Backbone:
């Protein structure tokens, strides 16, 4: 084996490197110039529209933004709480639905059918309709002994109902992606069906579906804003109130930006684990 | 080695049949194996070796016949299959190890969760085995960091560590690169010294001649010929056996 520190690239290799470096800097220049040109054109196109000054005043008003900010932030706190409870509920219920789907024993036929029908139904039903049905239907039942159910809880229920259907499909795909020989090996060691599932299949499946799960989490994060239609004073609702008071749309922009800020860490995290997973897959394939 | 009690086979199979739809894969097979013996199951691809082992391990529902483990009929419908599988170990051709667990945890998983041993006890047993096969330094590694031969040896040890009454090996060297086959066969030879009772489907005929006590030649789902290893290979009687051996032994 020759020593890497002794290595001197040949003239041919040096020429290749020089050429690649040159090409790289040229590409960077081209993309800088084109981005700048595009930005300028877009800016001029926007500001030269006849209604621009009106839009500018009603969507980008600094004073309104400053007044609305604390209220909207207060509302966002509610969104966060709903998000946490909904996410936990979705994981548990989604996993249960997925497990029901994988039961092969004929005894569990009803559970399998239920899970399947549930997933079909809630994947097709718009979230906003679920919110209306839950938000106004459940309180309408006047369940004895329950009293008034908070709008936050109703929002959590609606989100869990809808998102569990998506997440169940993700989990199911993960479970089915684990090679049957893994379960076979587990069973032949004497582990029971549920032990094989819990100790061998699920740990691998969950790792594998972490990226799509994170994507669903990111969607959930912005959909918590929809609970405002139930009357909960969340960020969107707070912004709406501020819009009504100030007769200016800027608070919506404030709420929107806050949601984006809230989502960015999750989005970055989702990207990171997706990347990590892709890398691990490549290693696996190379072997 | 102690004397074999010829009246009490460890495992006995009588008239085992397995049909897939209209296809007869096993057409009434008899087999017995005594404690500490190695039985080699040979036969061309598709002759029913894997199906036979899977039936014994109750992975496949048998179509007819009976199977006894130490005198107990394990082919009755009401049998607790999980309990039977605790007594019968099985290792497959490939994809054996659990990818999310370290080598050590692969071996201790069933020791702890099936046999109820504490982590300390299980680790001790697993490390002793890993030491024996020269993989003690790999205890904390994950399966994808091991060669195929190392993985397969770990898979075998994982089954043996549970002290099965019978160990079923289904072509455990077939998926390996030729230079890795030797180390796995060496382990099986070593297991014979410890008195493990083994039924192995294999294409390694010279190995079978060396270590097996009894050889069973399956042809199209029936036992075409069987006998003591030395005699079987030296004087095959059946025409099909002769063809098969000459095809593989060139
Ligand atoms: N699940 C199954 N369904 C239908 N046919 C099967 C199934 N499993 C095995 N077979 C058939 O049974 C025959 C014996 O297979 P197998 O036991 O794997 O043979 P061997 O291990 O000796 O190569 C083959 O013809 C195979 O196609
Ligand atoms: Mg086979």
Residues:
């Amino acid at each position: 084996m020759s020593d890497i520190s002794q290595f001197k690239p040949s003239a041919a290799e040096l020429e290749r490197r020089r050429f690649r470096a040159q090409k790289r800097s040229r590409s960077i220049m081209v993309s800088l110039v084109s981005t700048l040109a595009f930005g300028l054109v877009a800016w001029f196109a926007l500001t030269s529209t006849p209604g621009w000054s009106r839009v500018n005043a009603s969507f980008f008003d600094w004073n309104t933004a400053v007044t609305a900010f604390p209220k909207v932030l207060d509302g966002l706190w509610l969104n966060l709480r709903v998000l946490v409870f909904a996410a936990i509920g979705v994981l548990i219920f989604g996993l249960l639905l997925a497990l029901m789907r994988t039961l092969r024993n004929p005894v569990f036929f009803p559970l399998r059918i239920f899970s399947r029908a549930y997933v079909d139904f809630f994947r097709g039903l718009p979230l906003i309709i679920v919110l209306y049905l839950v938000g106004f239907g459940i309180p309408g039942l006047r369940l004895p002994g329950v009293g008034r159910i908070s709008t936050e809880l109703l929002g959590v229920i609606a989100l869990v109902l809808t998102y569990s259907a998506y997440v169940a499909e993700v989990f199911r795909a993960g479970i089915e992606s684990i090679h049957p020989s893994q379960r076979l090996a587990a069973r032949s060691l004497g582990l029971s069906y549920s032990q094989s599932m819990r100790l061998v299949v699920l740990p691998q499946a969950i790792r594998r579906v972490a990226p799509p799960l994170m994507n669903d989490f990111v969607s959930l994060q912005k959909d918590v804003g929809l609970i405002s239609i139930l009357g909960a004073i969340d960020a969107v609702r707070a912004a709406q109130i501020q819009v009504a008071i100030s007769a200016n749309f800027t608070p919506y922009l404030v709420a929107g930006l806050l949601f984006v800020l809230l989502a960015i860490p999750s989005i970055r995290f989702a990207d990171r684990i997706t990347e990590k997973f892709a890398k691990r897959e490549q290693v696996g394939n190379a072997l | 080695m102690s004397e074999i009690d010829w009246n009490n086979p460890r495992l006995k199979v009588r008239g085992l049949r397995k049909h897939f739809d209209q296809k007869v894969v096993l057409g009434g097979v008899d087999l017995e194996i005594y404690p500490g013996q190695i039985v080699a199951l040979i036969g061309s691809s598709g002759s029913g070796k894997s199906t036979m082992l899977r039936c014994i391990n109750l992975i496949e529902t048998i179509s007819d016949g009976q199977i006894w483990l130490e005198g107990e009929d394990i082919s009755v419908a009401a049998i607790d299959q999980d309990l039977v599988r605790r007594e019968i170990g099985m290792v497959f051709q490939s994809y054996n190890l659990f990818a999310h667990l370290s080598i050590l945890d692969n071996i201790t998983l069933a020791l702890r969760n099936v046999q109820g041993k504490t982590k300390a006890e299980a680790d001790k047993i697993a490390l002793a085995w890993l030491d024996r096969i020269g993989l003690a330094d790999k205890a904390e590694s994950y399966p994808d960091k091991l060669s195929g031969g190392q993985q397969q040896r770990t898979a075998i040890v994982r089954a043996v560590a549970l002290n099965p009454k019978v160990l079923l090996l289904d072509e455990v060297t077939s998926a390996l690169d030729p230079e890795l086959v030797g180390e796995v066969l060496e382990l099986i030879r070593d297991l014979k010294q410890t008195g493990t009772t083994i039924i192995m489907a294999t294409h390694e005929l010279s190995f079978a001649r060396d270590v097996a006590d009894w050889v069973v030649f399956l042809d199209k789902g029936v036992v075409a010929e069987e006998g003591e290893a030395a005699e079987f290979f030296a004087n095959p009687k059946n025409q099909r056996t002769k063809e098969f051996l000459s095809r593989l032994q060139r």
Q: What stands out?
A: Confidence is low (pLDDT under 50) at residues 283-287 of chain A.
